[in-house]
## 1
Amino acid sequence: MRVPIRQWGKRSFDNLRPSRHSPEARGQAMDEGGRSVHDAGPTDSPASQSESGQRGPRLLQPTFCGSPWNDERPPMPVPEAKRVLKAAENAPLATAVAFNFEDFRKQCDQYLQRVRNTARQIVQQAAQEAEQIKQQAYEKAKAEAYRDAMQQADAEIQRRAKALAEEQAAQSLQSMLPAIKDAADSILREYQEWLGRWEASAIRLSVAIAERLIARELRTRPEAATEMLAQALRLVSRVDRLTVRLNPDDLRALGESAEPFVRSIVHAERVELQAEASIPRGGCVIETRHGTVDARLETMLDRIVQELLQDPDDPS
């Protein structure tokens, strides 16, 4: 049963509505029967509660702007039984407050769930990114390690190949060294033989050239034969007698002065001059009791050749 509110103004009726966030709504509790129970106001005494014999919402004093409502019209008489609101009539208000709190709790739970889901997604995404970064770092480190290992392997292979090649070359050289030495000795011997043959050929060629030059000189200048005879006679020591054999042309060139010319050089008591066609011009053969001096041109040139071709290490 509702309390008449005609004597109250609209503003006083608004004051009867408990705010969702008012202390009355926050302090509201439920009894054993599921009915809403309000805390007793400061004007409700324990005696009045005991006299009523039941619990219920306290009567709100109509106010206007925080002051008691002052109506000029006298209030209508209201029976005492109607001043107490039934708990069943106030139940929709408590249900609305409880429903609003349940909605707020659900909204909070939903918001927390969304936050948890977002956090879970962030954590999962971070874990995936971390795993991806880890995998990339692993692949990069693996590639760098592989590259470094390949470089080290290449360097080691080159070093070992070089060492093996040097070792094999040394072994081959050791096995080939005797053959190489023999080949070198053979080449040296052949070189020395070739050099000796070349020197002999050169000397003989020089002697042949000299012989031709001397022969031409004797043909163009016959007095040169007398000079060559004088050189040969100076090789003979002082003797008592000697025999000189020379070319007939040289003997004719000397004429009657031939014997005095020989005596003036060797100071011999007896001198015999003999013409011999086998002796070339410019040459002569001197015979004494001590021996023979062969001063023929070819003999002297052969002696020169022998002297030039003689081995310096061979005293013979």
## 2
Amino acid sequence: MTSPASGRTYVGRNLNVSISGGDRITLKRPGAPALACNRVLAYQDAPEGVASGQAEGSAA
């Protein structure tokens, strides 16, 4: 996804996604708590060359 500007909201069917600061998105769906996700940089450290890292997310 490419954001036109920080703070703008994408609206889709039953989903709003707001992007802020370039490294945080918030997913909002009707009837569900908002879910905030932070970007985690992936890096290749495994012998098989698979990127590893663990994403963070919390219900807002």
